[in-house]
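Before relying on records like the one below, remember that each one covers exactly one chain. Contacts with other chains, cofactors or solvent are not represented anywhere in the record.
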Amino acid sequence: MKRKVLLSVMITGILMTAACGGSNSKAPEPPQTSETAVEQDSSFSLTPSPDKYTQYIDNYIGLNAASVGYSSLGGDRMVSIGAGLLEITYVTEDGSYVGPDNEEDLKNYVVTDQCPAPNTEVKLTFQKDSEGNEYDNLIEHQTYEKIDLTVKKVGGEEPSVELTEIQPSPDRYTYYIRNYVGKNLASVGYESLGGDYLDSYGAGTIALNIAAEDGSYIDISDQGLLRQFVITGQSIAPNTELKYTYLRDSDGNEYDNLIDTQTFETVTLNVRTWTGEAPVPSSEEIKESETETEAETEAETEAETEAQKDASGYEDIYNTYEQKLKDRTQEMLQEYHEEADGQDIDKKAEICTAKIEELAEISNKGVEKMATYMMTHGDAEGYSEWSAKLYDVYMSSSEELTNEYMNSI
C-alpha cells in the first residue's frame, strides 16, 4: 500500500456540486473508434502563468491516460503545475479500479472529463527558510491538491459520470471535504504507519472509516481487497468546510505543519462490492503484473539515444541527492532522540522543524543542480519529472521525522 505524509512541512499538493469539463501536447493520440471517440478541443488555449504564484490547469480531455502525468515513488499519479503538483484520481462509470502506477494498464484508457476544469486557476504559496526568504520550488499551500479524471476504455462507450466541483482552499486554515461517492475505495485513501486509512488535506489528515453494506470487516492493508469495493455514501457532505488551527511555539508563532485542532477528524464511507464483469485482481496478481512491466527497449534512433543521455544526467543527480536525504534522515532521527529527550512539546516541535528545514535545503540544492543541467540540455520535461521525484524523497524523509515527533509527544 502506498505511503504518504501524515503531517508534512510541504503541502503538495496539493478543493457546490456541479459538472466539470477537461496537457500534454506531446502526448500520442489514443486509438479510438469513430462512434466513441473523445476529441481534445483543438481551440483550447492554456492561460499563461503571470508569475510563480499563479498557475492554470491544463486540458487533459481526449488524451490517453498513460500520457498524463507520471507515477511517483509513493505509487501516486501526479501532474506538475508550476512548482506544485496535483494528484490524479481516476473515476470510472462502474467504480472499477484504474491503477495510477500501472503504465501498461493506463494505456487502455482515455480521459473523458476532468475536475477542476481546464484553465482553473491554482494559487501557490511557498515555504520560507529561517531568514524569511522564499524557496523557489517548495510549496507550503496550494488552492487545489487533487484532480479527478473520468476515464473510459479506449474505443468504449462514453461514461455518464458527473464530477463534483470542490471549492478551492483559500489558505492553509480552510479546506473542503472531497466527494468520495462513486469512486473505487482503493483510489481515495492510503494506509498510515499507524494502521489507519487516511486522506490528506493540506498539513492534516482525515481518517476514513469504512462501513460495508453487509457489515463485513475490510482489511485496509489488502490492496486487492480494497479494489473490490465502490463508495456509495459519505457521512460528511462534499464541500463541507474543514478548519484547522496550528500549534504554536513558546513565542506564540504558529508552526507550518503541526495541527492543533480541526473541525472534523473522521469521515465514514459506505461501500458495496464492485459488481463489474471484469475480475478484480488479487494482491498476488497485482504484484505479478507490476513485475511484468519492467522490461525496457533499446533506443533505435539518435533522438532516443540523446533523450536517454539527458535522463541519465538527471538520474545521476537524483541518485546523489536521494542518498544524501536518506543518510541525513537516519542521522537526524538519532539526533532528535538525543536533543528532544526531556524537552517540552514546543521545544520538540522546534527541533523537528529545524531538521526538516535542513532536509529542504538538501533537496533544494539537488533541484538547483537539475535546473543547471536543464539550461545546458534544454530538457524541461526531464527536469520536471526528476525534480518531482526528488521532492517525493524529501516528503518521505519529512514524514519519518514528523512521525518521530508525534510519537515523542
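The CA atoms of residues 117 and 292 lie 35 Å apart.
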